[in-house]
């Protein structure tokens, strides 16, 4: 399923810089009223500021309302996202839950999403992978690396003044490169 207004982020493991990269993109494009999404297969306890939208067996969707915490979703909101959604879901229900979240978002809205597994089910406008020398729990992303992507190194992110992406005509693309529709 092709979703041109989706920018998808994956990483080489925990603490690889996925949320930092998402926040950089949100800050660079605050004028676009971006919707940010974080999807995880980990069923952590919810924190203050997460407003339940749907809580069902096997998945839950929340809207982040707290800009004060250090949680990834709060950081995205603080970076300037118009809305931030957080979903806990196992991979076998991932596409179903993503479709539920999309129902909450007006068509054509730019979406920045942190969910490596979603790439197996969708073709985003742009797919970014971030790697880090200090990654805690390294993940095997060899299958993701076979898919079209752009790779950034977390340690070099601060040297990049403007990320080489753009959002025009309701789709994310790499600056100077035409994406196929």
What is this entry, summarized?
The chain has helices at 18-28, 72-79, 94-102, 142-145; strands at residues 2-11, 35-40, 50-56, 59-64, 83-89, 111-114, 123-131, 150-153, 165-168, 171-174. By secondary structure, it is of the alpha/beta class.
Can you characterise this structure?
This protein is an alpha/beta fold and 181 residues long. It has a single domain (2-174), classed as 3-Layer(aba) Sandwich (Rossmann fold). It has helices at 18-28, 72-79, 94-102, 142-145, and strands at 2-11, 35-40, 50-56, 59-64, 83-89, 111-114, 123-131, 150-153, 165-168, 171-174. Strands 3-4-5-2-6-1-7-8 form an eight-stranded mixed β-sheet, sandwiched between helices. It has a two-stranded antiparallel ribbon with strand order 9-10. Helix 1 (18-28) packs parallel to helix 2 (72-79). The longest helix is centred in the first third of the chain and has 11 residues, at 18-28. The protein is globular. 38% of the residues are buried.
Strand order of the largest sheet: 3-4-5-2-6-1-7-8
Which bin fits the share of residues in helices?
10-25%
Number of strands: 10
CATH topology: Rossmann fold
> Nearest-angstrom radius of gyration?
15 Å
What average pLDDT do the residues reach? 88
CATH hierarchy: architecture: 3-Layer(aba) Sandwich
At the first level of CATH, the class is: Alpha Beta
Q: How many alpha or pi helices?
A: 4
List the helices and strands in order: EHEEEHEHEEHEEE
C-alpha termini separation: 11 Å
Task: Enumerate the spans where pLDDT stays under 50 for 5 or more consecutive residues.
Answer: none
Shape: globular
Estimated structural class: alpha/beta
Number of structural units classed as domains: 1
